[in-house]
């Protein structure tokens, strides 16, 4: 699995919203500036994240974007799937895909691909945006104490 720029920027945007959770709607210009995301690209990402049920948006002067649920209830797995698609490295271990491999169950590598998928999914599922926001605050505090 490789995370594209789309995935990276989308995760950055969600992390910014997680850090500001409970403070109301956040303007996209603020998100773009804080996380160094091109604004035009951010608009597209926010639409994707809204359609996936991860972000809530409101138009107007008091509008902006916020997480649709608390950061504790949004996993990195949900974000990656919304932004990147399936986690499986090959289609034969992807959920809801017809296995059209000529080697099927006899494939010696299939078990390895399945194990990689399962472990990756487990890590992404247990990692919430609350966890990521906490880690970021800790790293920033550690950096500030060194400076």
Q: Based on the coordinates given, report the CATH architecture.
A: Orthogonal Bundle
What is the arithmetic mean of pLDDT? 93
Secondary structure class reads mainly alpha
| Major sheet details | 2 strands, antiparallel
| Helix and strand run | HHHEEHHH
Tell me how many strands there are: 2
| Percent range for β-strand residues | 5-15%
**Count of helices?**
6
What CATH first level would be assigned? Mainly Alpha
Radius of gyration: 18 Å
User: How far from one another are the termini?
Assistant: 36 Å
Anisotropy-based shape: globular
List the strand order in the largest sheet: 1-2
Q: What name does the CATH topology carry?
A: Arc Repressor Mutant, subunit A
CATH homology superfamily name: Winged helix-like DNA-binding domain superfamily/Winged helix DNA-binding domain
Portion of residues in helices?
A: 40-55%
Poorly predicted runs are none
- Count up the domains: 1
């Amino acid at each position: 699995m490789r995370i594209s720029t789309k995935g990276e920027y989308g995760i950055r945007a969600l992390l910014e919203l997680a850090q500001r959770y409970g403070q109301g709607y956040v303007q996209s210009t603020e998100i773009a500036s804080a996380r160094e995301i091109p604004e035009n690209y951010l608009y597209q990402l926010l639409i994707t994240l809204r359609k996936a049920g991860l972000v809530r948006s409101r138009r107007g002067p008091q509008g902006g974007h916020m997480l649709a649920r608390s950061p504790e209830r949004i996993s990195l797995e949900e974000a990656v799937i919304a932004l990147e698609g399936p986690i499986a490295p090959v289609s034969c271990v992807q959920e809801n895909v017809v296995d059209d491999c000529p080697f099927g169950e006899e494939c010696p590598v299939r078990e390895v691909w399945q194990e990689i998928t399962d472990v990756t999914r487990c890590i992404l599922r247990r990692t919430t945006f609350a966890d990521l926001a906490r880690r970021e605050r800790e790293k920033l505090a550690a950096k500030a104490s060194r400076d």
